[in-house]
């Protein structure tokens, strides 16, 4: 009847598989008017899932007399599953709940137009292998009886050999089954090769149906015999032809771009690839050219084979432009896996099995590194000794170490890291991914239990270690997997000039030039601001205070002459106790001599600092180190102003274990009525581990001190020197005393004192100038004291 609206539409669902190079195509067509005029729409590619097909009403030949609406589906190889159609709309009238089920058309139909009759041909294809000659065959063919009738059947040319009589007959039961028999009579060697078996002509069952174009049939019985009446096997009906082939195709060779056979990995998604294989024995009428497809299987058997009932199928139609295929096996459990692949041709001949494996999946990380230790190496500057204990995993491959420097990563300034507002102690990463994300630098991968790291810059470095196995699994990290260390020795200020990178007397001279100077003073040197450290240790992160004073010098003294060529770096013995400081003083005329005495030494005194405050009636003259520090190489320095003096002394080698005189200070009394008070206002004392051993101090005690028993010449401080030196001496009685400087050749350089002096302790300074005011050059000098019958000389080194 007539139709209205603009479009005829239907919805088609395709659940089956089709190849990208062999798409299913669909068209809609109509027949209209008394002459059943045929009009067809353009081809539309059918995708997986739902598809909408439409036909313009305006394209119908006679929209007032629509006789038939149809759908044609086609594919080069007929490789799709059942399809069905619903939601048909004719013009503006919907036809709900109309489902049309379709099965693939297995025959090659003539493209000649005509819908009352249809002739199809059935071929035999000798696809390869040792194919016997054919004496005869019988085919049982099923067709849709409600749609078509068999009009006739005729023999083909396959069995028409010269001089051989043949018998051909067919029987149609009218209910959808057609039987065709054809054989060679008499004695014969049979027919071979390829050719046409038969042709069958169908006629529409009625004028109303007229559905020959949709005729489909299949062969359910396919019997072939050789000249000895032996059945010919391995036959298959494919796409309108009966094919024979007993030769397997070329085997597929599986490979993997994601995994290497035998190499453990934590990646559990496996990709398998293989090149397109081929069947070398294709015949003339073998329409589905190429491979039918492949069966894949994965298991833990090295010599396994795919079972078609449970295998992963990877069947694909002919694809002349394809060079290979790929399949994924995802979320594989731990273990050794093997992939097996079998290729099949269109007659289901299997190739030999191709194997790939083992694919070793290991997703269990090793245990964590323990006992990780980072420490300054003795051998070089910018060098850190790293040591650790590996976990006991059998598949451990090594340890991966990451480093983060305070200056390098956070922009701080050596060595005053904590003075930078950007400085902060970094968060320890618990995983490798966290370390990478936070910008930690990879030091390297190491199979052993130690490594010497040599970073490029002086800094305080944080280290964290992750164990990894051969599969690439990484452990986490806890407190036992990390540590931090300086890469240089605190107190080594002259590292760029001293090839030994050694804390020695030159570093003592450098710190002495900035001693008791704070930031902003012209003599302040921030490189010397190394103390205190965060835990008071001699190798720890400096917690600086922008001042060079006792805290910095005690760190230098703790590291003095360690490292290359120096003393063995053994931990200092711990000691405890509380020392006491008090004063003893003696007034002789207008000269007040004060001795600072230390008592209760626990046997490990490394350095002490005592601050004296004095009244306005006293004028500070000078000070010298006391006998407590004379047993070995030491450093003494005094810093005074108008109301106080700071007396600091340090044992550079070892420690002092006795009680005694820390320092001797001298004052001049300014007048009879002035304030002559003198008291200790601060007392600091540290052990060889930089622990605090300072206790109480007492007020000044007016005690008459005994005079020195003999004349004596003391060590010059500092020695070596770069621009000045202080020389202490003692007089047992008032006498004429002379102190002079001589060069290495014995020539007089400068007379420092030559006059009568009272008994007691005294000191004299040399500013490094000759008698004529010129600077004395670097080299070896001697200072000599003469007092009465007493004479003594000592060596002095002047550096540039």
From TrEMBL:
<dbReference type="InterPro" id="IPR036439">
    <property type="entry name" value="Dockerin_dom_sf"/>
</dbReference>
<feature type="domain" description="FlgD/Vpr Ig-like">
    <location>
        <begin position="731"/>
        <end position="787"/>
    </location>
</feature>
<dbReference type="InterPro" id="IPR049475">
    <property type="entry name" value="Mann_GBD_bact"/>
</dbReference>
<dbReference type="Pfam" id="PF13860">
    <property type="entry name" value="FlgD_ig"/>
</dbReference>
<dbReference type="InterPro" id="IPR013783">
    <property type="entry name" value="Ig-like_fold"/>
</dbReference>
<dbReference type="InterPro" id="IPR025965">
    <property type="entry name" value="FlgD/Vpr_Ig-like"/>
</dbReference>
<protein>
    <submittedName>
        <fullName>T9SS type A sorting domain-containing protein</fullName>
    </submittedName>
</protein>
<feature type="domain" description="Mannanase galactose-binding">
    <location>
        <begin position="22"/>
        <end position="77"/>
    </location>
</feature>
<dbReference type="InterPro" id="IPR008979">
    <property type="entry name" value="Galactose-bd-like_sf"/>
</dbReference>
<dbReference type="GO" id="GO:0000272">
    <property type="term" value="P:polysaccharide catabolic process"/>
</dbReference>
<dbReference type="InterPro" id="IPR026444">
    <property type="entry name" value="Secre_tail"/>
</dbReference>
<dbReference type="Pfam" id="PF21253">
    <property type="entry name" value="Mann_GBD_bact"/>
</dbReference>
């Amino acid at each position: 009847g007539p139709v209205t609206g603009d479009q005829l539409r239907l919805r088609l669902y395709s659940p089956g598989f089709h190849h990208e190079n062999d798409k299913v195509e669909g068209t809609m067509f109509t027949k209209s008017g008394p002459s059943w005029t045929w009009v067809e729409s353009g081809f539309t590619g059918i995708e997986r899932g739902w598809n909408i097909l439409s036909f313009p009403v305006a394209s119908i030949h006679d929209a007032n007399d629509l006789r038939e609406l149809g759908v044609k589906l086609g594919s080069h190889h007929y490789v799709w599953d059942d399809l069905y159609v619903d939601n048909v709309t004719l013009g503006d009238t919907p036809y709900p709940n109309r489902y049309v089920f379709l099965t693939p058309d297995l025959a090659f139909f003539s493209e000649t137009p005509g819908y009352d009759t249809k002739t199809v041909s059935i071929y035999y294809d000798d696809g390869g292998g040792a194919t016997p000659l054919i004496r005869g065959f019988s085919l049982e063919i099923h067709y849709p009886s409600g749609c078509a009738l068999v009009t006739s059947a005729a023999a083909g040319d396959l069995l028409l050999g010269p001089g051989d009589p043949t018998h051909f007959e067919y029987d149609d039961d009218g209910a959808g089954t057609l039987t065709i028999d054809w054989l060679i009579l008499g004695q014969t060697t049979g027919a071979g090769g390829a050719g046409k078996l038969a042709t069958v002509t169908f006629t529409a069952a009625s004028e109303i149906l007229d559905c020959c174009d949709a005729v489909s049939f299949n062969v359910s019985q396919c019997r072939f015999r050789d000249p000895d009446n032996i059945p010919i096997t391995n036959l298959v009906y494919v796409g309108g032809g009966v094919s024979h082939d007993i030769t397997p195709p070329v085997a597929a060779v599986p490979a993997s771009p994601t995994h290497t056979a035998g190499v453990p990995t934590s990646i559990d998604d496996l990709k398998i690839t293989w090149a397109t294989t081929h069947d070398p024995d294709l015949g003339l009428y073998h329409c589905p050219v190429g491979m039918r497809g492949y069966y894949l299987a994965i298991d833990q058997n090295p010599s396994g084979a795919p079972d078609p009932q449970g295998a992963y199928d990877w069947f694909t139609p002919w694809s002349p432009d394809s060079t290979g295929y790929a399949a994924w096996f995802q979320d594989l459990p731990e273990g050794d896996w093997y992939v097996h692949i079998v290729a099949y041709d269109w007659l289901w001949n299997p190739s030999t099995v191709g194997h790939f494996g083992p694919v070793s999946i290991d997703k269990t990380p090793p245990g964590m590194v323990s006992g990780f230790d980072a420490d300054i190496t003795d051998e070089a500057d910018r060098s850190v000794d790293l040591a650790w204990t590996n976990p006991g995993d059998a598949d451990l491959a090594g340890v991966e170490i990451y480093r983060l420097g305070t200056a390098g990563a956070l922009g701080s300034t050596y060595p005053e890291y904590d003075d930078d507002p950007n400085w902060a102690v970094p968060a320890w990463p618990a995983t490798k991914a966290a370390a990478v994300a936070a910008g930690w630098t990879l030091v390297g991968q190491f199979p052993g239990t130690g490594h010497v790291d040599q970073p490029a810059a002086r800094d305080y470095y944080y280290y964290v270690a992750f164990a990894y196995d051969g599969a690439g699994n990484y452990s986490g990290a806890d407190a036992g997997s990390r540590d931090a260390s300086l890469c240089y020795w605190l107190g080594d200020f002259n590292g760029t000039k001293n090839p030994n990178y050694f804390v020695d007397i030159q570093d003592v001279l450098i710190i002495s030039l900035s001693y008791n100077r704070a930031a902003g003073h012209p003599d302040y040197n921030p490189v010397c601001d190394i103390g205190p450290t965060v835990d008071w240790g001699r190798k720890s992160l400096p917690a600086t205070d922008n001042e060079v004073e006792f805290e910095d010098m005690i760190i230098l003294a703790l590291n003095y002459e360690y490292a290359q060529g120096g003393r063995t770096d053994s931990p200092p013995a711990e000691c405890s106790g509380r020392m006491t400081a008090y004063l003893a003083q003696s007034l002789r005329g207008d000269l007040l001599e004060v001795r600072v005495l230390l008592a209760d030494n626990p046997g490990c005194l490394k350095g002490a600092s005592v601050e004296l405050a004095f009244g306005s009636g006293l004028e500070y003259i000078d000070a010298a180190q006391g006998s407590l520090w004379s047993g070995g190489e030491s450093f003494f320095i005094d810093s005074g102003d108008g109301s106080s003096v700071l007396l600091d002394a340090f044992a550079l080698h070892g420690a002092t274990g006795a009680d005694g005189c820390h320092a001797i200070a001298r004052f001049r009394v300014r007048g009879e009525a002035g304030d002559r008070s003198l008291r200790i206002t601060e007392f600091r004392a540290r052990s060889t581990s930089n622990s605090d051993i300072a206790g109480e101090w007492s007020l000044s005690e007016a005690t008459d001190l005994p005079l020195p028993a003999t004349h004596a010449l003391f060590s010059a401080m500092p020695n070596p020197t770069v621009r000045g030196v202080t020389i202490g001496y003692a007089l047992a009685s008032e006498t004429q005393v002379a102190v002079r400087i001589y060069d290495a050749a014995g020539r007089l350089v400068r007379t420092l004192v030559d006059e009568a002096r009272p008994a007691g302790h005294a000191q004299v300074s040399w500013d490094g100038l000759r008698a004529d005011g010129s600077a004395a050059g670097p080299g070896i000098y001697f200072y000599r004291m003469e007092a009465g019958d007493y004479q003594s000389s000592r060596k002095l080194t002047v550096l540039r």
